[in-house]
Design a protein that fits this description.
By secondary structure, the chain is of the alpha+beta class. Helices cover about 15% and strands about 55% of the residues.
C-alpha cells in the first residue's frame, strides 16, 4: 500500500515538473501566435480596397437656387493575381453601376481591360479624376460630344461597355513618352445592352516629350440605336501641368446622325491655373460649343468661368466657380450668371 502511494506521488511530481518545465509544445504555441498576424495579412491583402468620395454643394443663378448632391461614389478594387486586377464603382446620388471591369497588365507596353469603364477619349475624360480636376463641371464640348450630356441623347458619364488595350513606350523618369489606347464598345452607354450589331471604335495617342507637357489626339467612330445612326468624334489637345502652373486646351468635333439627317457639332476650351501657397489654386477657363455648326451663331454657347480651389486637408476639396453663360439666338435667354460652391470629401 505504501509503495503504491509512493508511486502515485512520484507520478504527480513528475507531471507537475513537466507542466512547469520546458516542453516541445510551447514553441509551437508561440509559433502559432507569430503566424496568426501573418496569415491575417495574407487574407487582408486579397480583400477589396474600399475608397470613394462625396460631392455636395449649392448653386445660385438667375433662374435657380438649390442645394445638391453631385456625386456619391463607392469603389472596390483589388488584385486577383499579380498583374490581374479589378474595379467596381457604384454611384448612389443617382443609383447605378458606374465602373465594373477586369484588367490584365503583363507588360508596361501592353494591357487588356474588359467591362464597363471610361472611354479613352480626350485628356480630361480619363487623366483628370475627382482629386485632380480643377473645376466643378467639365467643359461644354466634352460634355456634349462624349456622353456626359450627349447631343445624341446618351447619358453615360463618358463611359461604355467594351474591351480595350493600352500601353506605353520609352520610359523616362516615371512616365511613358508615348502612350496609346485602342478600344471597342457597344456604343449605347453604361448599363445598356447594344441595340445593333455594329461596334464603336476608339483610338487615342498621347505623347509626352517632357515632364508635365502632353499632346494628345483622339478619334471615335460608331453607330447608336436600332437605326444605326452615325456617331463620329475627333479631338486634339495640349497640356502643361508642372509645378505651380497649369495650362490646358482641347478641341472637339463630331458628326451625329438623326432622323432629320446628320449634323456637325464642335467646340473647344482653354484653361489656366496657378497653385498658390496655402493649398489654394486659382483658375480661369473659356469654353465654347456649337450644337449645329451650320447654324453656329444661333446654336453656340460660350462659358466664362473663374474658379477657386482650396484643400485645407489632404482629403477635403472646397471649390467655388463663377460662370457667365452666353447663349446664341437659338436659346430662350441671352445670358445667365451661375455661382456654385462644391465640397468634396475623399476616403
Amino acid at each position: 500500500m505504501k509503495k503504491s502511494l509512493l508511486t502515485f506521488f512520484c507520478l504527480l511530481l513528475c507531471g507537475g515538473l513537466s507542466a512547469n518545465g520546458p516542453s516541445r509544445e510551447l514553441p509551437a504555441a508561440q509559433s502559432d501566435a507569430v503566424e496568426t498576424p501573418a496569415t491575417w495579412d495574407k487574407i487582408r491583402a486579397h480583400l477589396p480596397k474600399i475608397s470613394g468620395f462625396l460631392q455636395a454643394g449649392y448653386q445660385y443663378s438667375d433662374t435657380s437656387s438649390e442645394f445638391f448632391v453631385k456625386r456619391a461614389r463607392l469603389s472596390l478594387t483589388g488584385d486577383i493575381v499579380p498583374k490581374f486586377d479589378y474595379k467596381i464603382q457604384f454611384e448612389f446620388a443617382k443609383p447605378r453601376l458606374v465602373d465594373a471591369y477586369l484588367q490584365y497588365r503583363p507588360f508596361p507596353q501592353f494591357g487588356l481591360r474588359a467591362g464597363q469603364f471610361k472611354i479613352p477619349f480626350s485628356l480630361e475624360n480619363t487623366e483628370y479624376g475627382v482629386s485632380a480636376f480643377e473645376f466643378i463641371d467639365y467643359p461644354l464640348a466634352l460634355s456634349r460630344l462624349m456622353a456626359f450630356d450627349e447631343v445624341c441623347g446618351l447619358a453615360a458619364s463618358g463611359r461604355d461597355i467594351g474591351a480595350a488595350c493600352s500601353g506605353g513606350f520609352f520610359q523616362r523618369n516615371g512616365y511613358s513618352v508615348v502612350r496609346y489606347d485602342l478600344a471597342v464598345f457597344n456604343g449605347e452607354g453604361i448599363n445598356t445592352r447594344d441595340r445593333n450589331k455594329s461596334k464603336d471604335f476608339v483610338a487615342r495617342l498621347i505623347v509626352q516629350p517632357l515632364a508635365g507637357f502632353v499632346v494628345s489626339g483622339s478619334y471615335y467612330r460608331g453607330e447608336y440605336g436600332s437605326s444605326h445612326f452615325l456617331r463620329e468624334r475627333y479631338g486634339a489637345g495640349v497640356c502643361y501641368d508642372c509645378g505651380p502652373f497649369i495650362v490646358r486646351g482641347e478641341w472637339f468635333g463630331g458628326t451625329t446622325g438623326s432622323s432629320e439627317g446628320p449634323f456637325d457639332s464642335g467646340g473647344w476650351y482653354a484653361m489656366a491655373g496657378w497653385r498658390a501657397p496655402r493649398n489654394l489654386t486659382l483658375t480661369a477657363r473659356f469654353d465654347s460649343f456649337a450644337f449645329d455648326c451650320a447654324r453656329r451663331s444661333s446654336t453656340r454657347q460660350n462659358n466664362y468661368t473663374a474658379g477657386l480651389l482650396w484643400s485645407p486637408v489632404k482629403y477635403l476639396r472646397c471649390q467655388f466657380n463663377y460662370t457667365y453663360e452666353d447663349y446664341g439666338r437659338f436659346y430662350d435667354t441671352s445670358g445667365r450668371h451661375v455661382a456654385t460652391v462644391l465640397f468634396t470629401g475623399i476616403f
